[in-house]
Specification:
Shape: globular
Number of strands: 13
Largest sheet: 7 strands, antiparallel
Number of helices: 19
Low-confidence stretches: 1-20, 22-29, 248-266, 406-421
Helix content: 40-55%
Distance between the termini: 35 Å
Radius of gyration: 24 Å
Structural class: alpha+beta
Number of domains: 2
CATH class of the largest domain: Mainly Beta
Strand content: 15-25%
Length: 472
């Protein structure tokens, strides 16, 4: 796992629990409440940035101004606007340098943007301001681990656990560090305590099983990992760990189908792909229509709840978000030409074809869809039910479209007395980018024009694609 991936995983753990040990000044009855209210009531990150940007020039009361900067800074961080987030938190600290959470916010942004050298000063200041808060030691512990100082990381987590010993997440994270340092017995104790605190902290079960395996306690490892696989059937890490122990011939065999009751709840499945490092996913609107709950499984086998943020039924696009590390994100490219070779990656015919995804190759047949719809591409790339919402990529692995539909061959055959072959459609990248712009989501357009071997194209598409399931 790279440094940025580790930072992303850890910053989501710290989350927004940054003010649990501080008391902020009251704002009730403030004369500028009307100026502050739109910023306070904004819900999406893009809306927070817009409303708080409008409020900041009008606010004169320091306590309101600091809240506006903090709210906008967190929103910028969520959207991956790291430089803007640093500017917001720096302005915030000039107003009120006494809040540990503000320093912690900025050091987390430094780490997310890969500027580790600027993070230690902020982390140390947060500890000085709130020595009785577990979150400051957790954050600094993650930073020490990033810097290769696992001894200091464990020391900080020891302090955090001493302050908040009933936090199951702290126990799991300290256990991972102890296991990484070869202290397997102590790690197993932490994972066991985490399960006693929170019986649904399944990550502790997985980590304890892996630690038992390293100890050579095969029986205990198999017991933990088998239970984990039954509880988390879509997570391949436990299945792979069981396969290593020789109890299963392949990782795939370790992943049983969902219970019948759960299968009955799934009314559709499709494909999507990551477009931001903070977990935004693009798919088709028809994939997520009428869903009470949505789940997305990434290339690492992690299955997480997905929250719908925006839909455009006209273009058949939807935006989801998950709280997870993002292994890779798509890069968009416009200007595709007729005849270019393109490929689709997705999860078609769930329950029949490979759960690891399918990759098919074809060409751009036309730069418009049915009835000259300029928002679509016609492609010869074979697609099946379940491909909907998946990426259409060029030979460099750049996303040039989103798979949306295939021609109803039986219906057309009844009209023309012939069966059309490989007439499929994808939403153009330019339409998707406009949709993301409207939703306030940042995305990458730094397209690589170097052609790749076709197997490498498949690997790149697989890295940012997700399998989406919809439950009633």
């Amino acid at each position: 796992m790279g440094a940025l991936e580790k930072v992303n995983r850890r910053t989501k753990i710290v989350g927004y629990v940054l003010f649990q040990c501080v008391v902020l000044a009251p704002i009730s009855g403030n004369a500028q409440e009307a100026d502050w209210r739109p910023c306070r009531e904004a819900r999406t990150a893009a809306e927070k940035i817009e409303k708080c940007s409008q409020a900041i020039p009008r606010l004169r009361t320091p306590v309101l101004l600091e809240r506006a900067y903090n709210r906008r800074g967190l929103a910028n961080r969520e959207l991956g606007h790291f430089e803007a987030a640093v500017q917001d938190f720096t302005a915030l600290l000039s107003i009120n340098p006494k809040i540990a959470g503000y320093w912690d916010n900025r050091q987390n942004v430094f780490r997310q943007m890969g500027d580790i050298r600027r993070a230690p000063g902020d982390a140390n200041t947060a500890v000085q301001l709130a020595p009785g808060c577990s979150f400051v030691y957790r954050s600094r512990g993650f930073l020490y681990d990033d810097l290769g100082r696992i001894d200091l990381a464990i020391a900080d987590f020891n302090l955090a656990v001493r302050i908040d010993g009933r936090d199951a997440g702290l126990r799991v994270e300290r256990g991972r560090l102890l296991a990484k340092n070869g202290q397997l017995g102590e790690a197993i104790a932490d994972f066991s305590t985490a399960l006693e605190i929170d019986s649904k902290r399944f990550a502790a079960l997985l980590e304890r099983g892996k630690a038992y395996s390293r100890q050579g306690n095969v029986e205990a490892a198999v017991a933990d990992l088998s239970l984990f696989v039954r509880l988390e059937p879509d997570n391949e890490e436990g299945a792979n760990a069981l396969a290593v122990l020789g109890r299963l011939p392949t990782a795939a065999a370790a992943v049983p189908p969902p219970p019948a009751a759960d299968r009955d709840k799934i009314i559709s499945s499709g494909t999507g792909f990551f477009v931001s490092i903070v977990g935004h996913i693009v798919t088709n609107a028809h994939v997520v229509e009428r869903c009470v709950s949505l789940f997305a499984r990434d290339n690492s086998g992690n299955t997480l709840p997905a929250t719908p943020l925006a839909t455009d039924r006209t273009s058949d696009l939807a935006l989801l978000k998950v709280s997870t590390d993002v292994p890779a994100i798509a890069r968009f490219r416009t200007g595709i030409r007729t005849g270019e070779e393109v490929a689709a990656f997705g999860f078609p015919l769930a329950g029949l074809l490979a759960t690891s995804g399918n990759f098919t190759v074809g060409n751009v047949s036309a730069l418009a869809g049915l009835h000259d719809n300029a928002g679509l591409l016609q492609i010869s790339t074979p697609v099946q039910p379940g491909n909907s919402g998946g990426p259409l990529v060029d030979r460099s692995g750049n996303v040039v479209g989103v798979i949306v539909s295939k021609l109803d061959t039986l219906k057309v055959a009844s009209v023309i007395d012939d069966v059309p072959q490989n007439v499929n459609f994808a939403i153009k990248a330019s339409v998707v980018m406009n949709f993301l712009d409207a939703a306030g989501v940042s995305y990458s357009v730094q397209a690589d024009q170097s052609p790749l071997a076709i197997a490498d194209v498949a690997d790149r598409a697989r890295s940012f694609a997700v399998w989406i399931t919809c439950a009633r």
